[in-house]
Amino acid sequence: MEPIFNYIDGNRNLFINRLIDYLRQPSISAHGVGMDKVADYLVNWLVRLGFDARLMPTPGWPLVLGHRSDQPGAPTVLLYGHYDVQPPDPLEDWISPPFEPTIRNGRLYARGVADNKGQHFAQILAVESLLAVNGQLPCNVILLLEGEEEMGSPHIASFVKHHGDLLKADLVITSDGPLPPNGQPKIDCGVRGVIGFELRAHGANRDLHSGNFGGVAPNPLWTLVHLLSTMKNEQGEVTIKGFYDNVQTPTELERTVLESLPMDEKAAIRDLGLTQFDAPLERGYYERLAFWPTLTINGLHGGYAGPESKTVLPHEAFAKCDIRLVEAQSVEEIFSKVEAHVRQHAPGVEFIRQGGMEPSKTPLDSPFVEPLKQALRIATGQEPLLFPAMGGSLPDYVFTKILGIPDFTVPYANADEANHAPNENLELDLFIRGIKAGVAMLTCLGQLPKK
Ligand SMILES: [Zn+2]
Question: Which residues in the chain land under pLDDT 70?
Answer without folding.
Answer: none
